[in-house]
Automatic annotation (TrEMBL):
<dbReference type="InterPro" id="IPR009100">
    <property type="entry name" value="AcylCoA_DH/oxidase_NM_dom_sf"/>
</dbReference>
<dbReference type="InterPro" id="IPR036250">
    <property type="entry name" value="AcylCo_DH-like_C"/>
</dbReference>
<feature type="domain" description="Acyl-CoA oxidase/dehydrogenase middle">
    <location>
        <begin position="2"/>
        <end position="62"/>
    </location>
</feature>
<keyword id="KW-0560">Oxidoreductase</keyword>
<dbReference type="GO" id="GO:0005886">
    <property type="term" value="C:plasma membrane"/>
</dbReference>
<dbReference type="InterPro" id="IPR052161">
    <property type="entry name" value="Mycobact_Acyl-CoA_DH"/>
</dbReference>
<keyword id="KW-0285">Flavoprotein</keyword>
<feature type="domain" description="Acyl-CoA dehydrogenase/oxidase C-terminal">
    <location>
        <begin position="74"/>
        <end position="234"/>
    </location>
</feature>
<dbReference type="InterPro" id="IPR046373">
    <property type="entry name" value="Acyl-CoA_Oxase/DH_mid-dom_sf"/>
</dbReference>
<dbReference type="InterPro" id="IPR009075">
    <property type="entry name" value="AcylCo_DH/oxidase_C"/>
</dbReference>
<dbReference type="Pfam" id="PF00441">
    <property type="entry name" value="Acyl-CoA_dh_1"/>
</dbReference>
<protein>
    <submittedName>
        <fullName>Putative acyl-CoA dehydrogenase FadE17</fullName>
        <ecNumber>1.3.99.-</ecNumber>
    </submittedName>
</protein>
<keyword id="KW-0274">FAD</keyword>
<dbReference type="InterPro" id="IPR006091">
    <property type="entry name" value="Acyl-CoA_Oxase/DH_mid-dom"/>
</dbReference>
<dbReference type="GO" id="GO:0016627">
    <property type="term" value="F:oxidoreductase activity, acting on the CH-CH group of donors"/>
</dbReference>
<dbReference type="Pfam" id="PF02770">
    <property type="entry name" value="Acyl-CoA_dh_M"/>
</dbReference>
<comment type="similarity">
    <text>Belongs to the acyl-CoA dehydrogenase family.</text>
</comment>
Length: 239
């Protein structure tokens, strides 16, 4: 469930239980599965944006060759967690750049929208300017975090749990940005829900707003990220 781009992928990785007697994360192997194997069926999931980036993948009596095993048998959970750490550690480097660009685009949008009550642009609203300033601070903090992650990667260091802080910060800040954009658009945000409509500017912002609803879920929910930070960085007890 929720397999990204499975409908166009040549391979996918599967965490399969290969030792039924092992407990929890032990006894799981990491397999690289050919999507063209008999018994593999993909069903795209239509998203709120109207697109289908995610899929359900069904395996019906699929036989996987021995050379599909990545790493050691029953050692798949460690590989999966390492892959997730890399995703959280370096994935957000280009996202931070895009985030900064979107803040500038939001300022331009607000400057172009006239408030019917005051006759002034929305950008003159001190509350909106305050919220945009807070987003700019978030962007700078994210830049420093991604620089740290990039420096660590260039030095050959493994990604650590601090990637969860970057992911958490980015996803929640990005949601705030798109909420602000929707407030600036007003009724245009509703009209922009139609991607082929006349208001292409509103459509772009609305699509991004809808997409950000998933960002605190993908690559691990915000709750999961907070647990990782609490347990691995702050050394707090589980539970």
């Amino acid at each position: 469930m929720w397999t990204s781009f499975a409908h166009i992928a040549d391979y996918c990785f599967v965490l399969a239980r290969t030792d039924a007697t092992a407990q929890r994360h032990k006894g799981i192997s990491f397999l690289l599965v050919d999507m063209k194997l008999p018994g593999v069926r993909v069903e795209p999931i239509r998203q709120i944006t109207g697109e289908s980036d995610f899929n359900e993948v069904f395996f019906e009596d699929v036989k996987v060759p021995l050379d599909a095993l990545v790493g050691e048998e029953n050692g798949g959970w460690r590989l999966a967690m390492a892959a997730a750490s890399f995703e959280r550690g370096t994935y957000f480097i280009p996202r931070q750049v895009r985030f900064t660009q979107e803040i500038e685009a939001l300022k331009q949008l607000a400057a172009s929208v006239i408030d019917e009550d005051t006759g002034a642009s929305k950008l003159s609203d001190p509350h909106l300017r305050r919220d945009i300033a807070r987003l700019a601070v978030d962007s700078h903090v994210l830049k420093l975090k991604t620089f740290r992650a990039l420096t660590n990667a260039l030095r050959g260091g493994p990604p650590g749990p601090e990637g969860s802080a970057t992911k958490l910060h980015w996803s929640e800040s990005h949601q705030k940005l798109m909420v602000l954009a929707s407030e600036v658009l007003g009724e245009r945000a509703l009209a922009g829900a139609e991607p082929n409509g006349a208001d292409r500017e509103a459509a772009g912002w609305t699509r991004d707003y809808l997409w950000t609803r998933a960002e605190t879920i993908l690559a691990g929910t915000s709750e999961v990220q907070r647990n990782i930070l609490a347990e691995q960085m702050l050394k707090l007890p589980k539970g």
